[in-house]
Amino acid sequence: MTARRLRHDRMSAALAARDDRELDSAPAELAAAGSSLVLFLEYLADPVSAALTDPVGVERQLFEVVDFLRDRELLHMDGHFGNMRAAAGRIHLVDFGLVTSPRFDLSDAERGFVARNRDHDADYAAMRLVNWLVTTVCEAPSPADRNALVRRCADGDIPPGVPAAAAAVIARHAPAAARMNDFCWRLYDGELRVEYP
Hints:
Layout: H1 8-16, H2 20-24, H3 26-32, E1 46-47, H4 55-71, E2 84-87, E3 90-93, H5 108-116, H6 120-136, H7 143-154, H8 164-188
Antiparallel strand pairs: 1-2, 2-3
Helix pairs in contact: 4-6, 6-7, 6-8, 7-8
């Protein structure tokens, strides 16, 4: 299967060039479909950094998002803070371009991938949450120092002076964060066939 990427400025031309007969059959195809997906765009002005103030509140909201995805058998696979926005005191996940689900029409290999990675979003949320806290609260000066500190926290060695609420969140999620940091660093270092832990 060959994937072709179209730049945004070429999308209109590509859609305009489509045969209108394809568009005429769309309602019948939609009526016969076993499931549907509705996409909408809403402008959420605030970056998630505006909501990153209360560690327990951020933890609760991140894992509400994870539970929402899990309850619907969706894997987002890209839940970094750049793909989150804040509005009315709530964190919203955006950019569903990598989403997959066992309910999609998947090959056996893709179905196996989904099964092996079913906990990815929860572990990724834990990694982002703990990395944020260790970087901001513990003032880890570099990503390598942050990863080492996350590993220490995963072993139960939370630095003294960390506020109790932040320390509790770090303690709950540091083991998953340490595993994901190691996994992501191996990918970043070029091990493209590394398996998700």
